[in-house]
Design a protein that fits this description.
It is built from twelve helices and ten strands. The strands form three sheets. It has a five-stranded antiparallel beta sheet with strand order 1-2-3-5-4, sandwiched between helices. Helix 4 runs parallel beside helix 10, helix 6 packs antiparallel against helix 7 and helix 6 packs across helix 11.
Length: about 425
């Protein structure tokens, strides 16, 4: 067993032990913190680690990873927590059982997130977690892992179906503006042509969304029957999602940017106030494994479709889009840059992006709420979330079907 970089643990602690059900050892975590976390190193000057444990954050199985809250106990100090993220696709394995390239795809996605943190994160003025150690995934050689700052007790995650207020949307957009401005100003040779949008290809080829959209029809038949049938035509067409959320911007003459790819509330941590209420300020943007060179309005459209009340979205979306455009122009001007695109181009791109992300808005209520049983003390709250999610999907579908008619059908099919 490799020795720890410093003798920070008691001899009675077996640092070769794996954390929970992960392939990552206590030793790896402690060494990672000694390498990358100044606060941990300071704590170790006055106390030794007597125990390290981990528990899965959230419901258990994640889409492409498991996330653990790691608690480090000292001999004479309060416990210290960090987060360990390990790629894994247990919750999706059945849906992809006939597609043998799925492991390589998820290896690519984890390593892509590693590259984002290694290459770009420290240069972008947005809310990101501190990363203490990065380990790329090499099949058969080493598991992938990210060791990062914990926001437990100081932040709230709404989940994929959680709705944001108009004020929170404004804060989320401010982050997007700074993110997109960085890549618009970055020399093209540093990133363009290096990050293709391929992460959803296996999802579409596996027809992953089809059973969920079919289930949605049974949840509210009169509402979703006709529109969902139109969308079912595209659930196995990789070009549908790729064109509507990515390539359409090129056809409209917009410069490409690096897209987050999954900019929604399941990947956003909102700061909490002293009494535990949720503030309008972002603590961190997480999960960068779907980054790709794409359309500058796609992340905004994703957030609006999936995480904003449908009526509020309809009332404010073009105003929000105009604010996004004006803020980006202003930020570019402060850096001595100008923009060579118009608001009209952005609006047309946004509508096309919205058509693509409506697929996700339709998926969410069926995935999270169909055929589920809940404890009595949670049923009323969850049923309220269910109805909100269904209404959001309904209004997304109405708008998307109108905007779908403006898109070239031949570019939506494989």
């Amino acid at each position: 067993m490799k020795d720890l970089l410093l003798p920070v643990a008691l001899d009675t602690l077996d640092v070769s032990q794996k954390l929970a059900d992960s392939p990552i050892s206590i030793e790896w975590v402690l060494n990672g913190l000694l390498e990358g976390d100044d606060k941990f190193k300071t704590l170790c000057t006055s106390s030794k680690v007597r125990n390290v444990s981990a528990s899965i954050i959230g419901a258990g199985k994640g889409f492409v990873s498991k996330v653990y809250l790691v608690s480090i106990e000292f001999t004479n100090l309060e416990p210290y927590s960090v987060v360990l993220k390990v790629p894994g696709i247990e919750s999706l394995a059945e849906s992809y059982s006939e597609h043998h390239d799925i492991q390589s795809q998820f290896v690519y996605m984890h390593n892509l997130e590693c590259e984002f943190y290694e290459k770009f994160a420290s240069h972008i003025d947005i809310s990101l977690p501190k990363i203490y150690k990065i380990q790329r995934w090499t099949v058969g050689t080493q598991p992938g892992a990210l060791l990062m700052e914990s926001f437990a007790g100081t932040s709230h995650c709404y989940g994929m179906y959680g709705e944001s207020s108009v004020d929170q949307v404004d804060k989320a957009i401010t982050q997007l503006v700074h993110f997109q401005k960085y890549f618009l100003c970055l020399p093209s040779e540093d990133w363009r042509g290096k990050y293709p949008f391929v992460q959803y290809d296996p999802t579409m080829k596996a027809n992953f969304f089809a059973p969920f959209l079919a289930k949605l029809k049974t949840m509210k038949p009169a509402v979703f029957d006709k529109g969902v049938d139109i969308y079912l035509k595209y659930t196995n067409q990789a070009n549908f999602y790729k064109y509507t959320t990515c390539d359409v911007g090129k056809d409209l003459g917009l410069p490409t940017v690096l897209s987050h790819g999954d900019y929604s509330n399941n990947n956003l941590l909102w700061k909490t106030n002293g009494g535990g209420s949720v503030s309008n300020d972002l603590a961190a943007i997480l999960d960068w494994q779907v980054i790709h060179e794409g359309c500058m309005t796609s992340d905004l459209a994703r957030f609006m479709a999936v995480n904003m009340d449908g009526e509020l979205r309809r009332k404010h979306q073009m105003e929000i889009l105009k604010t996004y455009f004006d803020s980006l122009k202003k930020l570019m001007k402060l850096d001595g840059r100008s923009v060579d695109f118009t608001y009209d181009q952005m609006e047309r791109a946004y509508k096309a992006n919205f058509v693509g992300h409506t697929m996700i808005a339709l998926f969410v209520p069926a995935f999270y709420f169909a055929d589920k049983e809940w404890p009595d003390d949670e049923r009323e709250m969850i049923e309220d979330e269910r109805e909100k999610s269904l209404k959001r999907a309904e209004l997304c579908l109405e708008d998307a079907l109108e905007w779908l008619e403006e898109l070239p059908e031949e570019k939506l099919l494989d």
